[in-house]
Amino acid sequence: MRAISRAIVIGNGVAGAQNQCIGLLRALGLSDRYTLYRVNRPRGGINDKLRWLPINAHKQLDSAVEWIRGKPAKKLMPFPAEQREVLEADARHIAKAAQQTFERDGPILVVASGHDTITLASSIKKLVPDNVFLVQIQHPRSRLHRFDLVITPQHDYYPLSPEAREQIPLFLRRWVTPRKPPDKHVVLTVGALHQADSDALRSASSVWHDEMALLPKPLLVVSIGGPTRHCRYGADLAMQLTASIKSVLPTCGSIRISFSRRTPMIVSEIILTEFSNHPRVYIWNGQDPNPHMGHLALADAFVITADSVSMLSEACSTGKPVYVIGAERCTWKFSHFIRTLHSRGAVRPFTGTENICEKWGYAPLDDTEKAAAEVIKAVAERGWRLLPYC
After folding, report:
1. Distance (Å, whole) CA 332 – CA 171
2. What is the C-alpha separation between 18 and 355, in angstroms, rounded?
3. pLDDT bucket at 89, cuts 50 / 70 / 90
């Protein structure tokens, strides 16, 4: 049997998408043998107003403008690159390398995530179908046969539910995707894949021990994301969160608060104004090192804004109490995702009446491990096997 002992990750510049790909590789034992590529949209000037274009058309237009201006084209770097070096993804370049190294090194596992990666990843598969195994994370919306496997959350199929169809005018239904139930190409998860496995948390616990493990217990970690099209909020949620944190403070030993890159300034300013001088509240300043993995490893409970599927998925994989704030502001599949977590007993609403000392359990999410098992199975059906790093 041919053995897959190397991988390519294709990201779109969004940390959450890349994190899912690397999390899958960790579960497959290939996290030390992958090359990272990125699909980069042109930025700056008029490009920022053209992000509605398909990425190929956008890049061709930008290349034509650069050629007219007399700027030289960017050269691709040799394959393979160093693990942490991010290269511009080029389908023909990757396909050629996969074909030329196949006899010596075997097939390549290609893992991509994010809307802008779909066309490029499927192009690689089309060019060298016998040399790669292609996994697309997050639903590509159409033509699933372009991929060997699609890994996507159950809530991506929310548009097919009777509840969702009642919300969509009849004349728009043919434009809402996906239009068909999942087929054999699809692996359904509850939430997002991630890197917060037991080994990673054990390592983070050691790294952050001196800073967090000795804090008064229980340690409540508050993770704040940012509004999205289907989870809209601003100062209103910040005020609600502030009041609720104040109410539960007597039941907490200490609190650590972190913001994401999507957090609006008006939200972070309200939180900082209320808690920056509180002796039992620490607010991460956004500078490295990022304490996120330490929070997952050493917190006793979490409060997370409802907009972040990734942060909720990670926290719910720990088996620790997870409280959600802002769920009533979410609609469409985000609301469905929160309801799914609630039905599993994994989350509860954060109201300010909680006793953070209270512990409650549930079956932790294990989406990443289950998805990895499905990849191994599908690879075997192809007549190949995975050769994990030892």
Report:
1. 18
2. 36
3. confident
DSSP secondary structure letters along 103-163: HHH--EEEEEESGGGHHHHHHHHHH-TTTEEEEEES--SS-GGGSSEEEEEGGGGGGGSHH
**87: helix, strand or coil:** strand
The answer, yes or no, to whether residue 46 has pLDDT greater than 60, is yes
The pTM of the full predicted model, rounded to 2 decimals, is 0.90
Q: What is the largest CA-CA distance in the chain?
A: 66
Q: At CB < 8 A and 24+ separation, what contacts does 259-263 make?
A: 259/224, 259/284, 259/286, 260/223, 260/224, 260/225, 260/226, 260/308, 260/311, 261/15, 261/226, 262/225, 262/226, 262/227, 262/307, 263/224, 263/225, 263/226
CA 31 to chain centre: 16
Rounded average pLDDT over 43-67:
66
